[in-house]
Amino acid sequence: MKFPFAAWRSRRSSSNEPSGAAAQGLGTFGGVYTPSILTILGVIMYLRFGWVVGNVGLVGSLLIVTLATAITFLTALSVCAIATDRVVRVGGAYYMISRSLGIETGGAVGISLYFAQGLSIALYTMGFAESVTQTFGHLDQTFVALVTTIAVAILALTSAEVAIKAQYVIMGAIILSLLSLVLGGNLPAVAPQGLGVTTGSVPFWSVFAVFFPAVTGIMAGVSMSGDLENPSQSIPKGTLAAVGTGYLIYMALPFLLSTRADTASLVNDSLVMQRLAIWQPAILLGVWGATLSSALGSILAAPRVLQALARDGVLPRWLAWLGNGSKEKDEPRIGTIVTLMIAIAAVCIGDLNLVAPVLTMFFLTTYLVLNLAAAIEGMLQSPSFRPTFKVKWIWSLLGAIGCLAVMVLINATATLAAAAIVLAIFFWLSQRELETTWGDVRRGMWMALVRFGLFQIDHAEDTKNWRPHVLVLSGTPTKRWPLIELAEALTHNRGLVTVASVLPEGSRDAEQKSNLERLIRDYLIKQNVQALVRIVTAADPFEGTLQLVSTYGLGPIVPNTIVLGASQDEKRQQQYCDMVTQLHQAKKNVVILRDHPQYGFAHRHQIDVWWGGMEANGGLMLLMAYLLGSNVAWRNATICLKFVVPDPNAAQAAEANIQALVSELRIGAIYQVIIADGRSFDEILHDSSRDADVVFLGMATPEQVDFAQYYPDFYQRTSGLPSVVYVMAAPGFAYGQVLGE
């Protein structure tokens, strides 16, 4: 046989769904069991099962069948759980995955699955053509494959209902072939050396990899859900019955083959079953039926996946016409024609030996993801997940692990190739930010992780794990964008940013507040800023701010740093200073930004930190400067630590101390010791930092000064500088230890 091993492995594509094709009101036998068992009893059973028995023996064959069927059985349990939780509409496996794990995951698997199914049609028709040309040698293989491909497509286009009925004929041929095999006789013993081949030399797992696709096919009936009279009963019964039937047949065949044929014949004769059968043409009919049923299953399934992808907006907008269906029964005739073109092109190319292993990986990836979906749904215990067929999540997880193991065993390189393709499609879809009208399990996953994490976090902050959780009181983001820009740069994906606004009481009802939060959130996303949004109403904005700070948060995750804009309103300055005082007393870091109205943060090249020691504000200022400098937008900035001494005698000792500090902290800062020489600090500040892009200055605390009098004077003294960040560290926390000092 010229038909490549890899193509036989890709036999599994028939396991995917001929969805929505049969007449309304299909029962368990016709709608689920028949298509599933036809895809299980396929080409590998006829052409490679003897090879399996010959290489690993009776016990090894029984072990392979049991292991392979166990993985398929676990996957079948997962499929039954998902299928009985919701109606599976057009798209089969894609539909199930997208509604569970999200449209990006579903689309990534669905697009790959579609092309795998389309190309698999060519694999099956080529396999059929090779068996025909072996029997009738004067025929051209490519011509037979093309004619068969077109004929199968015409059958699907004419009526999917007729195509489903044709599977009963195929099933009859398979039953006839099995009966002919059982009633047959023994082969005359042939010594291995007579064939000039050493037998039984293939490793166990290599044989397993060849056989495994033979036990798949469980998805064939699942996508018929929309056409079943009672899907929640038919899908579990039909699917599990097909898996059980296949297991019994595959467990019986090794006994028959090992007792009727010698090892050499089993290993070297792909049509050994034909020689064993009482009526040899019956085996050939079985082989033809298996290949044709596989091709028919794929030509029914692939266009329906394509139709579902187009209707959900996964495909580009200019391909939306692929979602159209026929007027009568919504059959995807346009998608069938497109799929036929892909299959014809593949047949003309002829050599799919390199592509086939990757296709097999796509099908296995589908099963793996379905298992994960069922495992996650069950593990999260979401109230919305209520399947009538209940399965413990651990069994679904075990099925996913089994699928991954089989993928690696079959072809590790093809596994990596398929994973790379699926991930590339996933990221492409994620970039498109597709919107859906259905929910999926991802929110539940994050909720479970958040719940677990919250209960693991201690309420008391420690220096080892300190993170900046910033509450930005920005008002309208577009008007105070530098505040958000500063907060986002300080967190640098290490902490949480919440953009908050206090509106006048009664200005918004609950729905209007929710809509405004959504608009602000969308704006932040467009600006590539990850932040939470909170809007509250209050009679007084300062009181509203204090209430927000005191109540906002969840468990131990509360804002520890408040970012404000500098106040210039003399009428409200007393209230502003009182608010800052109370924020400090609430043990929050207070960061006030006075951004330069013309230059903003300018070139982001120089960060000046005016140093007064690690105590009080010094540690927090240095930490914030480091966080700011590690942000991508500030990656070329230099942190300059500036320290003022009264005279040259103090300069030498100060320089040695700062040099040791900078070396110990490892933050890449430079330092400058400035001799006052009779000049005031204000004069030195303006002269030394006039070229900086941002200046960090520590503020006196309310315990040290009357803040209401201190703040206006401090504000006036620092006018004319570049953008300034006033810092007041929360009392009682050693920020120097966060830096490792």
Can you walk me through this structure?
The chain crosses the membrane at residues 21-47, 59-84, 105-126, 138-157, 169-191, 203-226, 238-257, 277-302, 334-352, 358-376, 397-429. This is Amino acid permease. It is elongated, with a radius of gyration of 35 Å. It has 2 domains: 5-189 and 199-432, Amino acid/polyamine transporter I (Up-down Bundle), CATH 1.20.1740; 463-738, Rossmann fold. Residues 1-23 and 191-199 have low confidence and may be disordered. The protein has helices spanning 5-9, 28-40, 43-47, 49-83, 93-101, 103-135, 141-158, 160-182, 204-211, 231-260, 263-268, 272-276, 281-311, 333-349, 356-380, 393-410, 412-432, 442-456, 481-491, 510-526, 541-551, 573-585, 618-629, 648-665, 681-688, 707-717, 735-738; strands spanning 470-473, 497-504, 532-538, 561-565, 589-594, 606-610, 638-645, 670-675, 694-698, 724-728. Helix 4 (49-83) packs across helix 9 (204-211), helix 4 (49-83) packs parallel to helix 15 (356-380) and helix 6 runs antiparallel to helix 15. It is α/β, with parallel strands linked by helices and 741 residues long. It is 57% helix and 8% strand. The chain is built from 27 helices and 10 strands. Strands 3-2-1-4-5-10-9-6-7-8 form a 10-stranded mixed β-sheet, with helices on both faces.
